[in-house]
Specification:
The protein is an alpha+beta fold. Helices cover about 45% and strands about 15% of the residues. The protein has helices at about 35-40, 85-90, 110-155, 165-170, 175-195, 195-205; strands spanning about 5-10, 45, 50-55, 65-70, 75-80, 95, 105-110. The strands form two sheets. Strands 1, 2, 5, 6 and 7 form a five-stranded antiparallel beta sheet that branches. A two-stranded antiparallel sheet has the order 3-4. The longest helix is centred in the middle third of the chain and has 44 residues, at about 110-155.
Length: about 210
């Protein structure tokens, strides 16, 4: 079995941005960069240390997830066969990093690459936790808002042990068609936000 031999490449500006979505690829590669996709397509094992951020789209206000490199302009490629010329021909590769004039490409020890993998993993877990907290806060705020809307619509006098949704379901037939439709939509959204499946999905990030 060939041992790992890691070398740093300098990338063409813009090639570290996320590549176009390709549904044919496995889920683990859906957020890869252009340089990663090009290297993998040509059979090279590449590692681009990166981190994730959630940004708001400037036109739609939709929250989108983006991936950014730790080392702007550089990535690491495993070359156990030392096929440097093949790597230089990959679209997006400018050159390999050299130690100094007169020396060949600079090889990085496995320990350094493992440290970068670990740092990336820690940053990823922190991002997932922050994402979970944001979604959970939004879910709780939305539940309280919807329950508040039901309180305004439904008759007063709910018993302490009767949930707002149960009261709405009991009173729904006595409501006008327009109000009934509105209450049904609120109940449906509340059930989705408070279901065990939804909550479990949110907690998987922790």
């Amino acid at each position: 079995m060939s041992r790992s031999r890691w070398y740093a490449i300098r990338t063409v500006p813009g090639y570290q941005r996320m590549a176009a979505t390709d549904e044919r690829l496995p889920k683990s590669r859906r957020m890869e960069s252009i340089i990663e996709r090009n290297c993998r397509k040509d059979g090279f094992d590449i590692f681009m240390p990166s981190f994730y951020k959630e940004l708001k789209h400037h036109r739609t206000n939709e929250i989108i997830q983006k991936r950014f490199p730790f080392l702007v302009g550089y990535a690491f490629v495993n070359l156990p066969r030392l096929n440097f010329e093949d790597l230089r021909r990959v679209d997006g590769v400018i050159c390999l990093l050299r130690g100094s004039i007169g020396y060949g490409p600079l090889e990085f020890p496995d320990g350094m690459i493992e440290d970068l993998y670990f740092a990336e993993h820690e940053r990823r877990q922190a991002f997932l936790y922050e994402q979970h907290c944001r979604r959970e806060n939004w879910r709780q705020e939305r539940v309280q808002h919807l329950r508040g809307q039901l309180r305004k619509i439904l008759p007063k006098g709910r018993k302490a042990r009767v949930s707002m949704v149960d009261q709405a379901e009991m009173a729904i037939d006595s409501l006008s068609p327009q109000i009934k439709e509105r209450v049904q939509k609120i109940i449906s959204e509340l059930n989705g936000l408070t279901s065990d499946v939804e909550v479990e999905n949110l907690r998987q990030a922790v």
